[in-house]
């Protein structure tokens, strides 16, 4: 049976492969591995480094679902040096490169979003254009897209569903990273929910979702957001409570639908 952490970062300066070994020792088999903004604005370098990390992880025996990210917070950093217009242009080019890499079979998804903190109106409007550009790329490529946004509410999911329909992106191809366990009965936005104990009681009410640690592998913040063993432990708790069918959905059936991959665990 596959066991997927749907959002994890790794850093050669952090625990790196030791974190992967912890994940494996607890029963983990698959990681949706999201690139970190190691070289802000230099997306060729970022994604090249990410592919090296992917290769190292796969050599340990974990199956990696590579995700190429243009983190929405980068606009604040790039704007300070280049101005809003140039920052927007650079991030759009980065997303186009991410889409190309997925088209070439080097990844399964891209990542975009909008700032989760207060920004100027100009930056907010530019961020919305960047995110819509990302959605269009995902639609053209036919891949999934993880979104990093402000804390989501039912209104957020309604807005994302309207965007999905407007762009023409297929059902379940938008993944709300760091999602609250809000019902998806009114939309087709995939929830990626933190594998924390407080969410156990809430997720069993949902029909389909993904689970993640958002492990950031930062030596200055060890264990943040959740540690590498969290998804396996969360899954074991679901199994202990008798939710075998739900575990099958969130680790095999739904990821296959969202990412268009075969979640083999052999």
Please characterize this protein's 3D structure.
It is a single chain. The chain has 266 residues and is an alpha/beta fold. It has one domain (4-259): Metal-dependent hydrolases (TIM Barrel). It is built from 9 helices and 8 strands. Strand 5 (144-148), helix 6 (154-167) and strand 6 (174-179) form a beta-alpha-beta unit. The longest helix is centred in the middle third of the chain and has 21 residues, at 121-141.
Looking at this protein, list some descriptive labels:
266 residues, globular, TIM Barrel, eight-stranded parallel beta sheet, alpha/beta
How are the secondary structure elements laid out?
Layout: E1 4-8, H1 17-25, E2 30-34, H2 43-58, E3 63-69, H3 74-82, H4 84-103, E4 109-113, H5 121-141, E5 144-148, H6 154-167, E6 174-179, E7 190-194, H7 200-203, E8 210-212, H8 230-240, H9 244-259
Give a brief description.
The protein is α/β, with parallel strands linked by helices and 266 residues long. It has 9 helices and 8 strands. Strands 1-2-3-4-5-6-7-8 form an 8-stranded parallel sheet.
Structural class given helices, strands, pairing? alpha/beta
List segments where confidence is low: pLDDT < 50 over at least 5 consecutive residues.
Answer: none
Strand content: 15-25%
Number of individual domains:
1
Find the CATH topology: TIM Barrel
Radius of gyration: 17 Å
Number of continuous helical runs: 9
Percent of residues in helices: 40-55%
Nearest-integer average pLDDT: 97
Instruction: State the shape.
Output: globular
Distance between the termini: 9 Å
Architecture, CATH level 2? Answer: Alpha-Beta Barrel
User: Major sheet: size, sense and barrel closure?
Assistant: 8 strands, parallel
* Strand elements, count: 8
Q: What is the H/E order? A: EHEHEHHEHEHEEHEHH
- CATH homologous superfamily (4th level) name: Metal-dependent hydrolases
Q: Numbering strands along the chain, what is their spatial order in the largest sheet?
A: 1-2-3-4-5-6-7-8
Overall CATH class: Alpha Beta
């Amino acid at each position: 049976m596959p066991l997927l952490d749907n959002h994890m970062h790794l850093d050669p300066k952090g625990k790196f492969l030791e974190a992967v070994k912890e994940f494996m020792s607890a029963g983990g088999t698959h990681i949706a591995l999201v690139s970190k903004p190691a070289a802000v604005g230099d997306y060729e370098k970022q994604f090249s480094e990410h592919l090296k990390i992917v290769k190292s992880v796969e050599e340990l025996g974990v199956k990696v679902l590579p995700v190429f990210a243009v983190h929405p917070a980068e606009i604040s950093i790039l704007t300070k040096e280049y101005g809003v217009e140039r920052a927007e242009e650079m991030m759009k080019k980065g997303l186009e490169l991410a889409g190309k890499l997925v088209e070439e079979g080097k990844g399964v998804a891209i990542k975009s979003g909008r700032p989760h903190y207060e920004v100027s109106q100009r930056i907010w409007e530019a961020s919305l254009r960047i995110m819509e550009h990302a959605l269009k790329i995902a639609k053209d490529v036919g891949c999934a897209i993880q979104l990093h946004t402000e804390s989501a509410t039912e209104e957020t999911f309604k807005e994302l569903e309207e965007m999905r329909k407007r762009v023409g992106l297929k059902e379940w191809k938008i993944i709300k990273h760091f999602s609250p366990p809000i019902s998806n009965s009114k939309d087709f936005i995939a929830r990626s929910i933190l594998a924390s104990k407080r969410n156990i009681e809430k997720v069993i009410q949902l029909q389909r979702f993904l689970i993640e640690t958002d492990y950031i592998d930062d030596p200055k913040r060890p264990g943040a957001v959740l540690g590498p063993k969290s998804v396996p432990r969360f899954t074991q708790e679901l199994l202990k409570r008798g939710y075998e069918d739900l575990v099958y959905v969130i680790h095999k059936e739904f990821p296959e639908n969202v990412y268009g991959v075969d979640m083999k665990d052999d």
